[in-house]
Amino acid sequence: MQVETRYVCLINEYMEKSIMFNKAIILIATGFMILTFGCSKKVVKSEGVIGGEISVKQASESSESKVSAEEGFPLREKFNKVKYIDIKALNREYEKTIIVDVRSKIEFDAIHINKAFHIPVGTNLFIKNLEKVREKSGSIPIVFYCNGRTCAKSYEAAEYAMESGFLNVYTYDGGVSEWVNAYPAKATLMGKTPVPLKKLITHEMLAKRKINFAEFKKKAENPHAIVVDVREPFQRKSIPQIPQLRNIPSDRLVEMIAEGELKGNQLLILDAVGKQIEWIQYYLAQHQYTNYYFLEKGVLSAEEAGRAISADEYVIGSEDVLEILVWRNEMLSRPRIVVRPDGKISLPLIGEIPAAGFTALQLKEEIEKRLKEYQELPTVTVIVSEINSYYIYILGEVRSPGRYQLKSNISVLQAVTLAGGFTNWASPNSMVVLRRNGEKEEKIKVRYKKIISGSRSEENIVLKPGDTIIIP
User: Fold this and answer.
1) β-bridge pairing 245-247 and 238-240
2) Strand (E) positions, 157-233?
3) Is the peptide bond before 194 cis (omega within 30 degrees of 0)?
4) Spatial separation of the C-alpha atoms in residues 283 and 190, rounded to whole Å
5) Per CATH, domain 390-471 is 3.20.20.140
6) Which CATH superfamily is domain 40-196 in?
7) How far apart are CA 175 and CA 196, in angstroms?
């Protein structure tokens, strides 16, 4: 429906209450008359407005919300103040809407709706970037979308925009995959339009690459494997106990895949809950990687198996790499800082500060305490982005004795595997772990046969930094 001018007011809300009255307004508007209902005097130019058919689709009535949940749209009931639009309506009004993709960059670059603006939700600049696309009081509808029916980002973006004063906000909750299959000519896959449907990765293709935690961990023990945690820093609230784990954000991983840096090794990738890996698979397929696997359910599966520790419980050591973020202060933030051999780090204003021996939470509190002299109520985030202080010694009858630098917690038997296994002359039932507690040294007996038989599985202890395993 083409109109020349309109008032920024509550017309849309009023139209929803009466279909008959809605028709009357349309007739009067086309007769070059403008009605006002106690609205502001500000006038906005409009190139196109979605008609009443979309504006009445609001998941505010509980009965409709429950039906939507049963039909496979579970978020409509949870975000019942957000208006939604279905796939057919969005296609019909495609040219008359502002479409916004709120996902990450690698997801957007892999596959997206044509003409969509890329404005990731959850960033500090979300509202500012949205205002560059359309002013808050504008009449052209904004439609947010993300991956699928259970992806809450589109609803969160719409809710955030509404709370910030944006009018005419909707969410398309069918997700990008449904759109691409229905309208491939209005979508882009890995830079190609229309989307070649044969290149779409199916659920079956993804499922073949997913393995459970036990299998993933076993593969990670291979010294030639490359194990990558693609979670963003803010997601790393727990540390999975998986050997050789590296923290590489997904955007950097995609660059490494394109450059061929990881070819020749088995690539093992994990994310937070198993949702992000689908998009990484597109890049792997494009660059002809074949030797790779994903951890099913991501770090969540490690937590369920009891093989993850809280990041707040990890004790920082020398050579660990930290990311220190000071809210709204880039000058004081440090995206990468290495703990020196003396256990200290240096930060602007506060100078040197001990880091080794602290947990991330304790260090955060100490930095905030010192910054209060210069900044009112500072908010600091400390993230352990690389674990380099975790090392152990394996001595005696193993094939490769020596000092081993680790990326995450491992058990005694895993450590023996890293050292190449027992020699023919080893006495595995007489293993001892030497652990220093202050000035005292503790001896912990480990009996191999008791562990593998299951009668004393607790003897397969998780090693601590500095532990020494002796195999006579």
Assistant:
1) unpaired
2) 169-172, 187-189, 210-211, 225-229
3) yes
4) 8
5) no
6) Rhodanese-like domain (3.40.250.10)
7) 18
The single residue listed with the structure tokens 């929803």 is 16
Say if domain 210-307 classifies as CATH 3.40.47.10. no
Provide the CA 99 distance to its chain's centre, in angstroms.
22
Q: Based on the number of CB atoms within 10 Å of its own CB, is 353 exposed (0-12), middle (13-18) or buried (19 or more)?
A: middle
Of the candidates 35, 27, 41, which has an alpha carbon nearest to the alpha carbon of residue 11? 35
Domain residue limits, the chain = 40-196, 210-307, 321-386, 390-471
pLDDT one-digit tens code per residue, 149-201: 988 999 999 999 999 999 999 999 999 999 999 999 999 999 999 999 999 99
**Is-same-fold flag (210-307; 390-471)?**
no
More confident residue, 244 or 57: 244
CATH architecture of 321-386: 2-Layer Sandwich (3.30)
pLDDT tens, position by position, 259-315: 998 888 899 999 988 888 989 999 999 999 999 999 999 999 988 887 777 777 778
Q: Enumerate helices (H) and strands (E) in the chain, giving the number of each.
A: 18, 26
